[in-house]
Amino acid sequence: MPELEQALAEVAAEMTERSDRGDVATYIPQLGKVDPKKFGIAAVTNDGRIILAGDADQPFSIQSVSKVFTLTLALGKVGDALWQRVGREPSGNPFNSIVQLEHESGIPRNPFINAGAIVVSDILLAGHQPREAIGEILRFVQFLADDNTIIIDREVAASERATGYRNFALANYMKSFGNLDHEPELALGVYFHHCAIAMSCRQLAMAGRFLANGGRNPATGLSVVSTERARRTGALMLTCGHYDGSGDFAFRVGIPGKSGVGGGILGIVPGVASLAVWSPGLNENGNSKLGSIALEKLARMMNWSIFAP
Ligand code: DON
Question: Are the C-beta atoms of residues 41 and 201 closer than 8 Å to each other?
Fold first, then answer.
């Protein structure tokens, strides 16, 4: 087995050269401006090593990767009551699909599709103004990454709000079933802003450490969530973290992952490391094309899989 430094450098060199990079998301106009040639990757091991390659220190829009952090925060607030409003099944549909909501009475399939994450935002709004809820989410991410330079890109949030017709449709539809406590506009304000958090691969891998270490920050030993919750979050990432591409990601990569339409993926190797990769071009399911390939190669090189004996 190669050293992790060598494996990351090899994967980054190969990905930087490739021309089949997928297409950058343009439905959020601000994301359409990102250079598709960027590629970064970071690994933070449970024993404290930080290994970087490519554009690993350049911030990008984490988009749906943020849903792992908002889910963690919301479960901390309301516990398992959350599951009365959001399911735990893969949707088999695109991340912004509305079709299942009618059959399933406004209860989204899981917390990672847009509808589910909007309900999670609604939960985080309880007792707060949107700006307070947004601040709480940002501070939580900064705390997890041990980095208070992480910011929200207001231009990305505004760009998504200006064009977010589908998300408005999802929120209004769920409101009609009584599954939003606040006005759709307010829940969406929280949602658009947490999706617009900008982080580098280094920062994202740092923020994911607690999931690779049974719920504890490996640097401080402090508990972020219970071991059971960390395991269950990993299970949801594996089954739902890549939308209708979740089965394929599990098949090819074999570890839990959460993608974002900005081209980032957070990957968790339980007991070993937290990984982040960024390549802005997306595949047909809206997941980072080269990011998925990079994680597949890295996992194979390092013999990482949650199914490894
Ligand atoms: O709501 C949206 O469409 C975006 N803010 C997030 C979608 C996303 O990241 C899907 N991921 N691959």
Answer: yes
